[in-house]
Amino acid sequence: MSKNEIELCAKLLNEHFGAVVETVASHLMKEGSLPFKLILASVKQPILEVKKALKVLIYHQFVDVFVNSIGFFEYSVNIERILFIIRYPKYIYVAKLLYNDYGEHIIEELLKEGQLTMSSVIQRVVNRLKPALTEDEIRKVPKSIFDTFVKMAETRFIRRTADFSEKSVENQLKELDDEAETKQFEIPKVKLNLIEIEKDDSDTVSSKRIKLDTSQPDDGIYWAVNFARFHQYMRDLLVLDAIKTHYDDEKAVEIARIIFRLTETKMLPLAKVTPSVSKQDICNQALKESICSSSSEVDLYLRMFNDDVNYRFISKVEESAGGGMYAINIFKTIDKLLHFTITSIVESQFGSKTCRIFRLVLTKKYLQQKQIEDTAMIPSKDCKELLYLLFKEGFLKTMQFPKQPDYAPSRTCFVFTVDIPDLCRTLIQKCFCAVHNAIVRRTYETQQHKLLLERKVFIDAVIANLQQQNSGEDVQQQIEDLNQSFSTHDKELLGRIQKLTTKLELSECQVDETLFLMQTWVLMNFQ
Amino acid sequence: MDDSGEQHSETNESGNLSETEVMKRILELCKENERGVTEKMLQGSMPSADPMLRANAINKLLKQTKLEIMKQGTQLLYRLKDQKQSNKGTDDEERIVYAIIEEAGNKGIWSRDIRMKSNLSLTLLNKVLKTMEGKKLIKSVKSVAASKKKLYMLYDIEPDVSITGGSWYSNQDFESEFVEILNQQCFRFLQEKLDAAKISADPISRINNSYVTSNDVWKFIKDLGISKIELSITDIESILETLVYDGRVEKHVVVRGARSCEDSSSSSSTVKMYRAIKPLVKSTGLMRMPCGLCPVMKDCREGGVISPSKCIYFKEWFES
C-alpha cells in the first residue's frame, strides 16, 4: 500500500463513514494488524465509538479479522476493498443494466449496509418502493425482488459472506476457507409473507403478526456484493467496447456478446482467453436472436475477426470439422486498450510528436536514439529533446549494453525501452492521487460555503413541508418569500458550487475508468 | 548537358559517328595541334557529325578534365589539358590527402580525421585542402547529422544518403513541414478509402476495401503534385510508417497474389498495405481533469504551498 492509497482511503472513509471510522482505519493502515486493545490505546476515542467504528469496518469487509498465534483477534485493513468505494456508482449502473430497478435497489442496499440477510434486503427494497406504488402493485413486489435476488446469486453478482445461523464466531473464522465454493451462492429459505408491505400508517395488523413469528429462516446468513464478478462483467464491457470502436459494426459486437454469454458459466475469473465456442453454437445463437440473416454471414464475421492480424480480438483456436472453435482474447484486448490509453496520456501531456516517438519505442521494444530519429521523421534536435523529456518523466527507460565489461559510457550502447508494468503502476498511483485531490477540493469548496449550503438545505426542507401540507394561495406566496431569502449573489454561488461538485464527481468516475483498466491489466498480467 | 540527350545521341547513329567515336576523334585532333583546336577545325575534320553530338562530346571531355577551353579573340579554342602540368603543383602532401579522401568514398571524411591519418599540421592541411578545392579535385559537403562538420570527398562523387539525408532534407535542414503535409495527405487518402469502403455489403470486403497499397498512396501523392522533388515508394512508405506510429493507421503485409500491383520490377514478393483506423481510446479519464496534466503533481499535498484546495488549475477548469 502506498502513501497515495492510504490518503485516498482515509478521505473516502471520512466522506462516507465519518471521522472516527477514518481514524481507526488510518491507525490500522499505519500499523498493519492490531488487536482491539492496541487500537483503543492509539486512537484515544471512547471505547463505544471505537467499537462502533470497527463494527462498521467489519460489516463492510473493509477490515479482516483473524486469530493470531496467541489466540487474540487481530484486525487488519483491506485497502483494495476500501478503494472499491470509488466504483460504487459503476456497480449500481451495471446492476441496473442487467436486472433493472430491482437489481439496482438490491445492490444499492447491499453497498450501503455492507452486508445484509436476504430477508432484510427484500424488506428494505419494499420500504423504498412503498411510497410510489399502490396497494395492489406492492403485493407482487416481494416476489419479484426475491426472483431478482435469486438470479443475481445464480449469476454470482452477490455472494454469501458469513453464516452466523448455526456456528459460533470462532468456528466461522476457522472454517471460512474450507467452505465449498458453491455454497457461497446457495439461496436460503425466506418467508415472503413476513415482508411488511402495508403502508406505514396502517401496519397495526402486521406488527402484531411479526410479534408472533418474527424470526426469518435465513437469520444470520449474510449477503454481500461480489466485486470480482462485477469487475469481470465490467472488463467484458470494455472488451465489447473496444470491438465496437474498432470494427464500427453493431453485428460484430453482438457476435462477441454471444461468445461471452455462451462461455459465462465456464469462465474462470482471471482467464486470459474465454473458453472456446464452436462455430455451430455461435451460428445457432445468432440466428435465434436474429442478429444475422444466415449462417454464412456469421461465418464472414468470424473470418473477419480471425483475419485481422493486428488486433485479433477474437480468433480461431482450433481447427475442427464443424468449422472451428473460436474464443475472445480478453487479455490481448485489454493489452491493446492499455497501450492506447498510455499513448493517449502521452499525447495529451506532451503532444502528437512525442506520442509518435513513444509509440515507436512501444512497438519496436528496444531502440537506439539514432534509430528513433530516423524512423520517427522528426528533426534530430527536436527528437532528442522530446525523447529526453519522456525519459525525464519516466515514460521511457534506458538499458545499457556495454561492449566491454568496464561499463565505460563511451563504449556502451544505450537503448530506450518502455517498461509497461512499471509505467502502469506509476499511472495507477497518479490516478489515486487525482481522485484524492478531487475529493479534497470538493470537500474544501463545500466547507467554504457551509453556512450557505446549510441554509439552502433548511429552506428546501421547509418548502417541501409546506407543499405537503396544502397547496393554497398563501402557501405559494410563502414559498415565493422563502425563495426570495437568497440574494442573486447567493443563487449564483449555489449554482456554481452545484456545477463544480458535479464536475468533480464526474471526473472521479472518469479517472476510475482509467484506473480500472490499468488495475485489470496488472491483475491479469501477474496472475 | 543532360543524360537524356546523351542516350538519344547514342541510339541515333544513322550511319554517323557515335559519341565515343567523336570524343576519340576530338582527342586525336587536339593531340596533333598542341596549340589548340578551333570549332572550325573540328567541323572540318568530321563533317558528318551532328553539331549537337559534337557539343555533347566536348562537354563530356571537359567534365572529365581531359580538355580545357580557352578564348582566342572571338572564337573558342579547345586544348588538351596537360595531365602532367595539372599535377605539377601537386606535391606529396596533396597526393596523400587525395588518397585519404578517395578512400572515404561517398561518405566523405572530416578534416580532423584527415589530419589524424596524414599527420599534417593544421595550417598546412587547410592550405592543401583549399588549393585542392580550387582545382576542383575535391569538394566539401555538410552533413545533416552534424551541420558544423565539413566533410571532404572527391569532386565528382555524389554524397551518400546518410549525409544529404535523402528527400527530407534541403540544405541540411529537415523539412518537417513538408513531412507533416505529406503525413496529412496520406492520412486523408486512407481516410477517404475507409469512408468509401463503408458501403460494401459484407464485413470482410468492408475491411479489405479500406486497405491501400503503398503504391496507390505513392500514385496519389504524385498526382497531387505537392512535392517538387521526385519521391520514391520507400519515401512514401516511411511517411506511412509515421502514421502507423501516430496510431492512426494500421499496417498489414500480404503476399503478392491476386491483389498485387502491376510493376514486377521490385523483387520482394510481399505488398505493404495500409488502412486508417480509429483509435481504441480517444481520451482517458485521467486526462480529463487537471491533475492528469499537472506539472507540479509531485509537490502537491494538503497543507503545502501547492495543494488541491488552493489549486489554480482547478479554478481555471471550473470556469471553462
Automatic annotation (TrEMBL), chain A:
GO terms for molecular function: single-stranded DNA binding. Residues 342-418 form the DNA-directed RNA polymerase III subunit RPC3 winged-helix domain. Its main location: nucleus. Residues 148-335 form the RNA polymerase III Rpc82 C -terminal domain. Keywords: DNA-directed RNA polymerase, Nucleus, Transcription. One of its GO terms (biological process) is DNA-templated transcription. It comes from the Eukaryota. GO terms for cellular component: RNA polymerase III complex. It is found in: Nucleus. Residues 7-64 form the RNA polymerase III subunit RPC82-related helix-turn-helix domain. DNA-dependent RNA polymerase catalyzes the transcription of DNA into RNA using the four ribonucleoside triphosphates as substrates. Specific core component of RNA polymerase III which synthesizes small RNAs, such as 5S rRNA and tRNAs. Component of the RNA polymerase III (Pol III) complex consisting of 17 subunits. Belongs to the eukaryotic RPC3/POLR3C RNA polymerase subunit family. This is DNA-directed RNA polymerase III subunit RPC3. It comes from Dinothrombium tinctorium.
UniProtKB/TrEMBL annotation, chain B:
GO terms for cellular component: cytoplasm; nucleoplasm; RNA polymerase III complex. It is found in: Nucleus. Gene3D superfamilies: Winged helix-like DNA-binding domain superfamily/Winged helix DNA-binding domain (1.10.10.10). Keywords: DNA-directed RNA polymerase, Nucleus, Transcription. GO terms for biological process: transcription by RNA polymerase III. The keyword Nucleotidyltransferase does not apply. The keyword Nucleus applies. Its main location: nucleus. It comes from the Eukaryota. InterPro entries: RNA_pol_Rpc34, RNA_pol_Rpc34-like, WH-like_DNA-bd_sf, WH_DNA-bd_sf. PANTHER family: RNA POLYMERASE III DNA DIRECTED , 39KD SUBUNIT-RELATED. Belongs to the eukaryotic RPC34/RPC39 RNA polymerase subunit family. DNA-dependent RNA polymerase catalyzes the transcription of DNA into RNA using the four ribonucleoside triphosphates as substrates. Specific peripheric component of RNA polymerase III which synthesizes small RNAs, such as 5S rRNA and tRNAs. This is DNA-directed RNA polymerase III subunit RPC6. It comes from Dinothrombium tinctorium. The lineage of its organism: Eukaryota, Metazoa, Ecdysozoa, Arthropoda, Chelicerata.
